[in-house]
Fold this protein.
Amino acid sequence: MVKKHQFSSLDIDLQASEKVYKGFFDVDRITLRHRLFGGAWSKLIKREVLSRGESVGVLLYDPKNQLIGLVEQFRIGALNDPVGPWQFEIVAGILEFGESPSEVAHRELLEEAGLRVYSLIPICNYLVSAGGTDEKMHLFCGLANLLDKAGNFGLDSENEDIFLHIWTYDEVMQAKGNGILNSAAVTISLQWLELNKRTII
């Protein structure tokens, strides 16, 4: 039997929503109350939410040559990370109005890796950190020939400086095991690949 949540959006009493900051990202202040598991209503709750919307990530995989493509770029949120603010990640981008996740995937693959894939396989979608942001990430595995595809990419208009690394499957799994790959999207995508690589051609 499939488990379901006891409550839904109908069990929320939204009192107010106010934009308190608008910049590279937006921050909204939400005031609400919600049903409690005991049956009553909660007290009024005020929370700030980082409004990012939906994003897309693509793990690049070459099944014929057993290669994986990961991009490296500077990330402000990793300034205090022990290994520094340059992160190994999957290709990723934010949905613009009217775009589908697959359209964003193809656009970002060209911008960040200079690649077109011959197949785009859905992995899953997940809420990145629902305690403080509304961002939902859609993950895909993009199949392509990755031989000799490493290089420098990104849009000057967005101040992007992105390097596409091509690693063997074993190198990537070793890096994951050693804690070098510490992005949630990378970890989830690689775990999916470990479970499904034998069926991918």
